[in-house]
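[09:14] KT: can someone run the structure on this one? pasting the chain below
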Amino acid sequence: MSTETHSAEPAADDATRDSTRTDDAVSASPRTGDVDTRARVTLLEAENRRLREEYARAKRSSYRKTAFALVVVGCVAVGGGILFEPVREVLIVLGATGLFGGILTYYLTPGQFVAADIGERIYSTYARNASAIATELGVQDDRLYVPVEGERVQLYLPAHTSNDQDVPRDVPTPLSMPFVLEEQRRGVTFTPNGLLLLEEFERGLRGDLGSHPQTIATQLSDGVVEQLELASSADPDVDAADGRVTVAISGAAITSLDRFDHPIPSFLATGFAAGLERPVRVEVRAGGERSDWLVTLRFRSE
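[09:31] RB: done, structure tokens below
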């Protein structure tokens, strides 16, 4: 009897240990899955960082190759000017221009680049939130960019609007932020996306922003393509007498220009409101065969 009792106790202990191991394995399995998930996330983050760095390096390399090519052309032109006396003056000027452009391009190469998809995600969040606010407040889908003191330009969405395409005469100024509570002029106001873009554009602009529709249209369209690089082409059609400017946009870096306060229409409308010192109404529609989008700006002509 004593022998059987003694042998049963180790068996029970073994069973208990096996049960404990099983429980530990079960409880450890989710932790193992969490570790694997965290490891994958870490690897993806590292890969994203590597790709961003590679993209920045590629862009810097492109700028520097351009700078090198300009310097080579400049040196060849200067050398040709020394050898060929009849065209010396022209070649020396060409060479100096090439050398200057190469040095300028090399030292002004941007240190950081923001991928277009990152800008798309940032803008999309803003557009969804602001559009939801406007919808909840029941304001119209009428986008009026209004020049004001202090803020310079504000985006005003009225609660009531006329049926015609003209700019309303009773736009309240100054606009209160963020709600306009005057009777018959109720609405909501936002700081437009294009305001800071306009300020950045003006820092690189030769001279001041124009005050005539044709001049402003040319300046802003060039800014969209050349300076801000928001699109591959922007072709303005100006009818100053009718108070209308239509800009054909193709190759936009951030697509779907008909969304709330999109950077390209916002920049154009903000620039016109600031230059003309008059409210500007924006309409965006698909461009058809000749362009991707048509951005129409309307204002009261003189």
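[09:33] KT: thanks! The first strand starts at residue 143 and ends at 148.
[09:34] RB: yep, looked fine to me
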